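User: Assemble these into one structure.

Assistant: Restating your components, then the assembled model:
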Amino acid sequence: MSADNPIVDGQRNTRRAFYDDISQKNLTPLWEVLASLVTPVPRSPLRPWLWRYADIGPDVLRAGQLISAEEAERRVLILENPALRGQSCITQTLYAGLQLVMPGEVARAHRHTQSALRLVVDGEGAYTAVDGERRTMRRGDFILTPRWTWHDHGNLGDQPVIWLDGLDIPLVRTLDASFAEHGQIESQIETRSEGDSLHRFGRNMVPVDYSSAATDAAPLFVYPYADTRTSLTAMASAAPDSHLGYKLRFINPTTGLSPMPTMGAYAQLLPAGMQTAGYQSTDSTIYLCLEGEGTAEIGGEEFPFSRNDIFVVPSWALLRLHARRETVLFSYSDRPVQQVLGLWRELRSN
Amino acid sequence: MSADNPIVDGQRNTRRAFYDDISQKNLTPLWEVLASLVTPVPRSPLRPWLWRYADIGPDVLRAGQLISAEEAERRVLILENPALRGQSCITQTLYAGLQLVMPGEVARAHRHTQSALRLVVDGEGAYTAVDGERRTMRRGDFILTPRWTWHDHGNLGDQPVIWLDGLDIPLVRTLDASFAEHGQIESQIETRSEGDSLHRFGRNMVPVDYSSAATDAAPLFVYPYADTRTSLTAMASAAPDSHLGYKLRFINPTTGLSPMPTMGAYAQLLPAGMQTAGYQSTDSTIYLCLEGEGTAEIGGEEFPFSRNDIFVVPSWALLRLHARRETVLFSYSDRPVQQVLGLWRELRSN
Amino acid sequence: MSADNPIVDGQRNTRRAFYDDISQKNLTPLWEVLASLVTPVPRSPLRPWLWRYADIGPDVLRAGQLISAEEAERRVLILENPALRGQSCITQTLYAGLQLVMPGEVARAHRHTQSALRLVVDGEGAYTAVDGERRTMRRGDFILTPRWTWHDHGNLGDQPVIWLDGLDIPLVRTLDASFAEHGQIESQIETRSEGDSLHRFGRNMVPVDYSSAATDAAPLFVYPYADTRTSLTAMASAAPDSHLGYKLRFINPTTGLSPMPTMGAYAQLLPAGMQTAGYQSTDSTIYLCLEGEGTAEIGGEEFPFSRNDIFVVPSWALLRLHARRETVLFSYSDRPVQQVLGLWRELRSN
Amino acid sequence: MSADNPIVDGQRNTRRAFYDDISQKNLTPLWEVLASLVTPVPRSPLRPWLWRYADIGPDVLRAGQLISAEEAERRVLILENPALRGQSCITQTLYAGLQLVMPGEVARAHRHTQSALRLVVDGEGAYTAVDGERRTMRRGDFILTPRWTWHDHGNLGDQPVIWLDGLDIPLVRTLDASFAEHGQIESQIETRSEGDSLHRFGRNMVPVDYSSAATDAAPLFVYPYADTRTSLTAMASAAPDSHLGYKLRFINPTTGLSPMPTMGAYAQLLPAGMQTAGYQSTDSTIYLCLEGEGTAEIGGEEFPFSRNDIFVVPSWALLRLHARRETVLFSYSDRPVQQVLGLWRELRSN
């Protein structure tokens, strides 16, 4: 390794010449990169980051003056991870954006192989329609559009509505498996009344002939925040998990699996004053603060957060959460992908 | 085949002698019974039957004077299929009974490999406790005790409570797989507050670390009738299935499967005046009328039913239901067993 | 409990009158039978039994003179459990028979919801055809006809062929789910060459488009004894399991599950001189001795066995096997049913 | 859209200023990139490419003179997709390399969360050891090291051995889930004799106590080419699939799934003269020619191939294969990942 050793120099030169030679043939030596490819623990290229809603909410509203929903198809500002600028992603597999729908607007019907989740952060009066059923979107509701389902949105109210869009766009891009279609009409015909999917699939029963094997899209696409909050509140009568507080994952009740195979979604309550112990996991995760305020310590960096702020925790970064007030966090990640491939790991420390 | 043919007679005698001979060796000829063993369609030995609650309810109450809950362990009158008397079963795989718990009584804790379901038909104030959680039992609630879970019951009210017990006793007997244990104490200590399982598993979410693979007992053991009724009512705004009306099956939301692997349970709404078209299935089924009244035509026989009546439909018997008023039926059968073994069939006709 | 106590007598009489009364209504008290229905451990009604092939093989051949294959449809002597005579079963869920096919005979095509396994014990030249593929049957080959698959048999050789038939007839009867059809022609047209299923599914590969979800019948229906024996011999270079020797279970390689959902099948090698430690399981099991000789101690009774003998071990009976010479046993049971229902248990002792 | 329209210009400038502004906050407008993120069909960045073994085999041997196995840990030349140079990948999710082990060398024991497959292309005498069992590697054998299993290699012969390494390195990198460990010793102790896994898991049987649920690594890690070739030859007596010839996929026989969850592997026979019809699929695929020669038409480009050549087909590129002589192709892709996520599609044309 010494620059003054002529034998080492000669060997280095020989190798360099060899590398140049084989490079013409689209070959490259593994041994020069092995250590960076197969690492002892994950070395994520991501940067932890937090977007303050107070900072970016006004930008989202400004977008409403710069482009129409019609022209944009979806009027969204993408939250790009600072370490992956230009790649339209917040983690290596996931996308996050804030979508704005102004009163009277519609975001026209389309479908694609990318799965999407929505979480209203601001405003009332919008709806999402999935496969013929409209759903009024209320703050905190977890709403999803499974891959390849027709969906459109609109705002029937009198105020702008902003929601978080979470998609698996980067993962589908890596897998080279994007398909999409535009609908013939702007908004779907309502073929089922609002609440239909909740009535049929949301109460631990299913229509007698329903078979989850016959379809791969989850039949339940709305998880009202009122229900989520009721469960979290009730759980809080027992002692919290020292690493997670009270944390639930959303499921497709016809399988018990994640509502979307590519993204897991979670809701989590931290009592006022709670300081969680250190936690690491391989699924880089996006958090949205639904209630409360506190500080996220991510890989040694501190990020104060409050209502509607969004932050991202890279794979294997040590996470500690401190809730100054009673706090509810929504989060999503690619955990179901990692679990089905046998790759997911977590580590609990102090 | 003629009795007057000496050759046939001789053959018959030779065979008879052979049969007698091999019978000593515990052998018997298949060809004499093949047609009865492998039938072209099911030929159930069951009789269709209906128990009028008006007739048998008083008997259940009389049992309360004849034997204490303590002496009986479970004070139940078994509904025996008329074709299978002495076998403690209503179908070849299932058991049905009406249990009585008087005010102040307890039915002490035990557990067994048999699975059980309960459905209160009369009275208020009773509870079922499963694995440390008590549940107040309300009329129509579908409550279960998965196999090998500790369970006990009690009546904290001031009136007798009667409920339907459905168990897989005959199936477990056929499989020779009965295990049971008595608890050390009469009633379980409450380790979880009432509603805990509903809060954690009943709203399309589960605790983040929960794995359905790690256990085989369903974590949700209560399905409130209020929820069931809300869904049925909502579904009734669309057109009914001509064979089934509006029919839901209860699921374990962590798997999408039947809450118990040996018994499926269903709730069904028939609008006033509805006459269902002919339906056959291989799972002999027990029905309980929760609301309304009507007539069940089973294999050509008519059985008028009203509130709290119980009737049994044998495998492959043609069923037509006529609801004189809006009617809700609860039912259970061994369908999940037949489905997992690939044996279940249904046929829809006129 | 004393016959001389007038109060007890009175109570007994009152109860008796009540029982008689409710019996008219097809009701019966649980408390009189609870202890026999829900037992602390299985109390099988079965008797352990052994059929010596030396005794019953001649009877099977005699059947060849008494009835034609055509008249019998299947010329089989059923091995009936001595405790369940007249019920055509060897256990409460399974059937065992010895089938004879004479040179030149065919057993005509049919199909049924009952699943079947075959194991040639004597003679060469027979074949089984399943779904258009014929398979020459060699001693020890494990051959199956999945439910609802067309199958027929024939003997193209010059000697009688006798095989063991194992079916789930009693289980399907209990479930009331028997369907059957006769073929239009005696023998199926060969649409696939012999060995086709082994070539496509037997070597840890499957046709690229094959989906096990799209069918429920196992695509591999032949497990050659030569392969089984090779694996058993190779395993015997390591130390045996003290309770089981070397024991393999046959699988459907497209799922890893039992080739038939209702019956599990096993092959087991015991080295010469081995005495297994005590073993109990809830699946009553039928054994066939393919090689060697020894003694089966079943629930305290000793049954010496040698080549081609068949014996049955009831649920939870303590089994110890003593191999006087190197011994290979084939066995089958309803274990997959019990496992999928969560009911199977085993216990290993000394 | 005209450059001469001052209103459009103004709007463009306003937007540009907005984009610059929000870029400081790690925000970017979706509408500028939506069309490239959510495409109507896959638009793979990959280039189709073929590496001629005659060209690159000598380079692999030269590497043997430039670096020792010890220094390199694994002496491999990576085949990099020309469109993704510097990223150590042949597709966006998969890696391909040619590894050289010289006589007497060992590649020391390690394990990692990346899964690997091996296929010897040249030379005799090498072995792979997985979890205590050594396997002599013969040309065409499909050998795998499931994730997190200890493995090492060595060459006990007298000639260099070259094999194809296929790994999921890029996918695991995207998921940020790499873990690795070095063994304490260079080569594993042999705890199981060669062939052990084949004897226990390779013949459609498994040890009676084996449970695939208890582990996530496939227990069978060798698929001998002799077996593969036997099946392909036998299948070729029927008519070929017009798009695929005769194509088999390797399975884990204890589940029926891919032996590795992240990579599917396939073997395919094309009769001499066969020209396949057009085929597209979303899983970018790497092919290795084991026997024969021909031409691969990929997305309109022609690539002649012969023995040991390797080529890559991008997602959704139209593939037509022309076999000049009887040809056997091995291939691998991320198809199982796409299938489990519901993203895999194929299209058959002319």
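Chain C has eight helices and 24 strands.
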